[in-house]
């Protein structure tokens, strides 16, 4: 009996392996292997078409200490994130509260409308905003001049500060609906009697939002902060298309004065941007450095969350 | 008082919805005008130049880009959905050593940004002689950790063990159990992951940008971005192409929004 059971388990394991195999094999060959290989490449001075030498950590040391654009790209990315992520999350929270309200009609329509930019390819997002903000042909300058608000077009995308603001605005436009959908799904999980109780206690709308809804949505908020941070670190396609997509003049890497050069754009430009100088070693080092920075921030975030939760737990007891 | 507040709420919502939709609307209007009209200023009404613009776009390779995107995204979706469902099935309905560890590792891989492997991936594609095929833009979507996680959760919750067991007693093979018992139970979860994979692969720009050089293999996003060189001065035709690349997905999303949103938010609800 015992051995029969054992035999049955064994054949089952065989099938489990069989069902797992396609995913695992594809992941090992095309996922894990390039990750490890990239790390090795980051320790070499490989430039496409030239000899490859092992150089240890010198790519990293140079990136951290003397490279002109690495820290700039990290700073740009952080700045962009600071501009669009908190705004997206706050707007999404308020919006979903409005959509969720019983009085609101056309809930489905709003949910779909706000989410629409998020399913649109980054190429289209960047180009649509380029159509609006282009210096000479853009819609916005046309409108502003028509109404006599400005006498000559503003060079939105040619000025470092403005280019950053427009980029952040575009990212906000493309992102806040995504956050809204998460808050809505979180709100549908809050039990109705919690609201009833708040009502009985005489709480008005603002108090209910502040003391009931927002605390109950904390898991969604912390999830959104974390995933927004990870996805924000990877932004590249939208600014690239906004600033370079169909530009007729002045194609620049990273926008004016590289003010919108993000980490991944810098990686792309280093390893693939310049056809005669494809720096694979340095590019791989940029990728790994960014990954380490992300992990560091995520770990710090998790630790603070845990400490805070612990402290709150102590007070509650 | 309460009524006035309700109207205010609706006004805020409509203004924001207007802001999200207006760029799409302008894109559609602009795609029906002549390039000259575009430069004269803002018209918020459709023009009459749609057919001519269509002709311009039609005479370019844009149709080919469409077919490439369709082929690549369909392949990515079919393979990715199948591998996700199979792995999800193995992790939820079989008991074996290290099962939970494997599941945990797969979920952890979701945290690794894909850009980290980008350079070695391109080199790998070159070594496999795949750079002049569509495979480089298909392969990364054929193994999706989120898909595995999603299918594992769905199969765990939706497929009763007894039904599988009785099929086995009737002599069904494990493959048969999977295809004709398990999959029908999780149809809507399959639709969700298939739609997401299709969306992600269709929208991708970076991958084709660095792995495809042959214009005959351009996908829609890459094609749109490269239109500048093709009909440089015909701005309106470019915008029409942009609209044509965007609209099908918008329609797909509107009809499948329930599935999209359910899939995307599945991780957050549990916190």
Descriptive account of the structure:
The complex is a heterodimer of chains A (317) and B (271). Chain A has a single domain, classed as Orthogonal Bundle (MetI-like fold). Chain A has helices at residues 2-42, 58-65, 70-100, 107-119, 122-133, 139-146, 160-187, 192-200, 205-216, 218-232, 237-244, 263-273, 280-316. The model of chain A has no long low-confidence stretch (mean pLDDT 88). In chain A, helix 3 (70-100) packs across helix 7 and helix 5 runs parallel beside helix 11. Chain A has 317 residues and is mostly helical. Chain A starts with a helix and ends with a helix. Chain A contains 13 helices and no strands. The radius of gyration of chain B is 23 Å and the shape is globular. In chain B, helix 3 packs across helix 14, helix 4 crosses helix 8 and helix 4 packs antiparallel against helix 13 (220-230). Chain B contains 14 helices and no strands. The two termini of chain B are 37 Å apart. The mean pLDDT of chain B is 88. Chain B has 271 residues and is mainly alpha-helical. Chain B has a domain at 61-230: MetI-like fold, CATH 1.10.3720. At the A-B interface, helix 1, helix 3, helix 4, helix 5 and helix 6 of A face helix 1, helix 4, helix 5, helix 6 and helix 11 of B.
The CATH architecture assignment of the domain at 61-230 in chain B turns out to be Orthogonal Bundle
Structural class of the helix and strand makeup of chain B? Answer: mainly alpha
The termini of chain B sit apart by 37 Å
The name CATH uses for the topology of the domain at 61-230 in chain B is MetI-like fold
Report strand % of chain B. Answer: under 5%
Please write out the topology:
The complex is a heterodimer of chains A (317) and B (271).
Chain A: H1 2-42, H2 58-65, H3 70-100, H4 107-119, H5 122-133, H6 139-146, H7 160-187, H8 192-200, H9 205-216, H10 218-232, H11 237-244, H12 263-273, H13 280-316
Chain B: H1 2-30, H2 35-40, H3 50-58, H4 62-93, H5 99-109, H6 118-127, H7 135-138, H8 145-158, H9 161-169, H10 174-185, H11 187-203, H12 206-211, H13 220-230, H14 235-269
């Amino acid at each position: 009996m015992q051995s029969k059971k054992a035999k049955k388990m064994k054949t089952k394991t065989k099938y489990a392996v069989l069902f797992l195999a396609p995913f695992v094999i594809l992941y090992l060959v095309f996922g894990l292997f390039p990750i490890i290989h990239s790390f090795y490449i980051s320790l070499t001075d490989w430039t496409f078409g030239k000899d490859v030498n092992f150089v240890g950590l010198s790519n990293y040391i140079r990136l951290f200490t003397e490279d002109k654009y690495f820290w700039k790209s990290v700073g740009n990315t952080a700045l962009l994130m600071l501009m669009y992520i908190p705004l997206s999350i706050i707007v999404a929270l308020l919006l979903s509260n409005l959509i969720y309200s019983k009085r609101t009609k056309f809930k489905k329509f709003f949910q779909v409308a706000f989410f629409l930019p998020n399913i649109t390819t980054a190429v289209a997002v960047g180009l649509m905003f380029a159509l609006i903000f282009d210096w000479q042909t853009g819609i916005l300058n046309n409108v502003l001049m028509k109404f006599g608000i400005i006498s000559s077009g503003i060079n939105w995308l040619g000025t470092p500060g403005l280019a950053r603001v427009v980029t952040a605005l575009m990212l906000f436009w493309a992102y806040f609906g995504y956050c809204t959908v998460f808050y809505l799904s979180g709100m549908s999980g809050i039990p109705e009697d919690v609201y009833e109780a708040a009502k009985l206690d005489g709480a008005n709308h603002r108090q209910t939002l502040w003391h009931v809804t927002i605390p109950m949505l904390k898991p969604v908020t912390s999830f959104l902060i974390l995933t927004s941070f990870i996805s924000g670190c990877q932004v590249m396609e939208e600014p690239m298309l906004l600033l370079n997509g169909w530009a007729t003049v002045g194609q620049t890497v990273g926008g004016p004065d590289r003010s919108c050069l993000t980490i991944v754009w810098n990686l792309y430009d280093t390893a693939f941007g310049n056809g005669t100088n494809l720096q694979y070693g340095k590019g791989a080092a940029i990728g790994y450095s960014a990954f380490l920075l992300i992990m560091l921030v995520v770990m710090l975030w998790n630790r603070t969350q845990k400490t805070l939760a612990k402290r709150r737990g102590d007070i509650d007891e | 008082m309460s009524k006035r507040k309700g109207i205010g709420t609706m006004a805020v919502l409509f203004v924001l919805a207007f802001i999200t939709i207006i760029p799409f609307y302008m894109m559609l209007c602009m795609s029906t005008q002549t390039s000259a009209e575009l430069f004269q200023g803002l018209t918020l009404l459709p023009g009459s130049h749609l057919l001519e613009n269509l002709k311009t776009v039609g005479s370019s390779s844009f149709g080919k880009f469409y077919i490439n995107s369709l082929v690549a995204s369909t392949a990515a979706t079919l393979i990715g959905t199948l591998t996700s469902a199979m792995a999800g099935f193995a992790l939820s309905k079989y008991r074996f050593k290290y099962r939970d560890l494997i599941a945990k590792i797969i979920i952890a891989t979701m945290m690794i940004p894909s850009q980290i492997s980008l350079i070695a991936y391109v080199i790998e594609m070159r070594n496999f002689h795949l750079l002049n095929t569509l495979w480089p833009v298909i392969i990364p979507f054929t193994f999706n950790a989120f898909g595995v996680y999603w299918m594992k959760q769905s199969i765990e919750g939706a497929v009763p063990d007894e039904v599988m067991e009785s099929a086995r007693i009737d002599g069904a093979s494990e493959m048969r159990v999977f295809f004709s018992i398990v999959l029908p139970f999780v149809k809507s979860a399959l639709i969700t992951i298939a739609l997401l994979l299709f969306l992600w692969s269709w929208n991708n720009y970076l991958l084709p940008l660095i792995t495809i050089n042959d214009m005959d293999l351009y996908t829609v996003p890459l094609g749109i971005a490269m239109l500048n060189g093709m009909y440089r001065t015909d701005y309106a035709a470019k915008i029409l192409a942009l609209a044509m690349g965007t609209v099908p997905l918008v329609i797909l999303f509107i009809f499948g929004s329930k599935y999209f949103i359910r899939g995307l938010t599945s991780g957050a609800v549990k916190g």
